[in-house]
Specification:
This protein is mostly helical and 89 residues long. The protein contains two helices and no strands. It has helices spanning 2-36, 40-66. The longest helix is centred in the first third of the chain and has 35 residues, at 2-36.
């Protein structure tokens, strides 16, 4: 049963990684478009969103590469973000 759960968790992590990478690409493209239109505040917000997606994707990638959660050290939570204490994972 544990092997099946491990496979399901790994599959979910790969899906999350792919979703975050797509979000990163989209946010960067939209930020570039906003800059061309001189919407600097919108571009800045999209840049922040892209940076957060990149940070999260990097964290998941490290977990997938190392095969364990303790290999990834999460950074402090950003404004409005909830972190689950490590004992609850």
């Amino acid at each position: 049963m544990l092997d099946g759960q491990t496979d399901a968790v790994e599959e979910a992590l790969w899906a999350a990684l792919n979703t975050l990478q797509e979000s990163l690409r989209l946010s960067r493209r939209l930020a570039e478009d906003a800059r061309r239109r001189q919407h600097t505040r919108v571009a800045a917000r999209l840049d922040e969103r892209a940076a957060e997606a990149a940070r999260r994707a990097s964290l998941i990638q490290r977990v997938l590469e190392n095969g364990k959660l303790d290999a990834a050290t999460p950074e402090p939570a950003a404004h409005g973000e909830c972190r689950v204490p490590s004992a609850e994972r």
